[in-house]
């Protein structure tokens, strides 16, 4: 089965799970940035976790990367996304989708520059037991 089909099937399975809300580790970042697990399932050596991430106005996730690929849907607000060169690699409005590739060579940060919370529905496709994210050093540049 192609990778994209596996991700789609996994996402459908996660959504079909009971939505037992549990508070989980927050994405690194500013005050009020939070995450909660909506559903999770392990298939083989891969963890599929559906989380809701909330980023309050004026806050950011902090610089980080992931050990697996993430697929996000912007449920509310507008997310400004930056890569390790501090260049904007996208502005994602309500209803938009983004994909974050895996690995330490894909350090990034999301920021809420708007007046309302950014709420993301995120499907994490991670190696079994991997953390949601890994902190990364600030690249030391000014964001646009």
Written description of the protein model:
This protein is mainly beta. 10% of the residues lie in helices and 44% in strands. The protein is built from 1 helix and 11 strands; from the N terminus they run αβββββββββββ. It has one helix spanning 3-16; strands spanning 22-23, 34-43, 46-55, 64-65, 69-76, 78-83, 88-93, 97-100, 108-111, 118-127, 134-135. A 6-stranded antiparallel sheet has the order 1-2-3-10-5-8, with helices on one face. A 3-stranded antiparallel sheet has the order 7-6-9, with no helix packed on it. β6 and β7 (88-93) form a beta hairpin. It is globular and about 40 Å long. The N and C termini lie far apart (41 Å). The relative contact order is 0.25. The model is unreliable at 3-10 and 12-27 (pLDDT under 50).
Short description:
The chain has about 140 residues and is mainly β. It is about 10% helix and about 45% strand.
- Got a strand count? 11
Report the span from N to C terminus. 41 Å
Strand fraction equals 35-45%
In N-to-C order, the SSE pattern is HEEEEEEEEEEE
Estimate percent helicity.
Answer: under 10%
Low-confidence stretches: 3-10, 12-27
Q: How large, in whole angstroms, is the Cα Rg? A: 15 Å
């Amino acid at each position: 089965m192609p990778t994209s089909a596996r991700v789609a099937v996994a996402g459908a399975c996660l959504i079909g799970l009971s939505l037992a809300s549990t508070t989980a580790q927050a994405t690194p970042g500013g005050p009020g940035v939070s995450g909660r697990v909506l559903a999770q399932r392990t298939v083989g050596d891969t963890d599929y976790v559906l989380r809701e991430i909330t980023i309050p106005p004026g806050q950011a996730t902090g610089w980080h990367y992931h050990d697996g690929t993430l697929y996000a849907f912007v449920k509310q607000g507008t997310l400004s996304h930056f890569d390790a060169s501090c260049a904007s690699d996208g502005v994602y409005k309500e209803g938009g989708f983004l994909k974050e590739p895996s690995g330490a060579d894909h350090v990034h940060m999301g920021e809420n520059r708007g007046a309302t919370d950014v709420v993301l529905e995120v499907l994490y496709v991670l190696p079994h037991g991997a953390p949601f994210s890994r902190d990364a050093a600030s690249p030391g540049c000014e964001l646009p």
